[in-house]
Design a protein that fits this description.
Elements: E1 2-6, E2 26-30, H1 32-36, E3 41-46, E4 49-55, E5 61-64
Antiparallel strand pairs: 1-2, 3-4, 4-5
Length: 65
């Protein structure tokens, strides 16, 4: 399932990297089953780094570097 949600502005959340943030006010939502495709983990390349997204036995998602 793919859905688009308006981005809620949270004045308590500030960032020093505003130039790197997209200017769009909508956030795309992708169901985790679509990402994992039946697997328990997924490797995500972000720049020069590789992250591991794991689906735990307790039905939680854990993202580690």
């Amino acid at each position: 399932m793919l859905a688009v949600h308006p981005h809620a502005h949270d004045p308590s959340h500030t960032t020093h990297h505003t130039a790197e943030r997209p200017s769009a006010v909508e956030t795309v939502e992708i169901d985790s089953t679509r990402l994992l495709k039946g697997q328990r983990e997924l490797l995500i390349r972000h720049g020069n780094e590789c992250y591991r997204l794991r689906h735990t036995r307790n039905d939680k998602l854990i993202l580690t570097k």
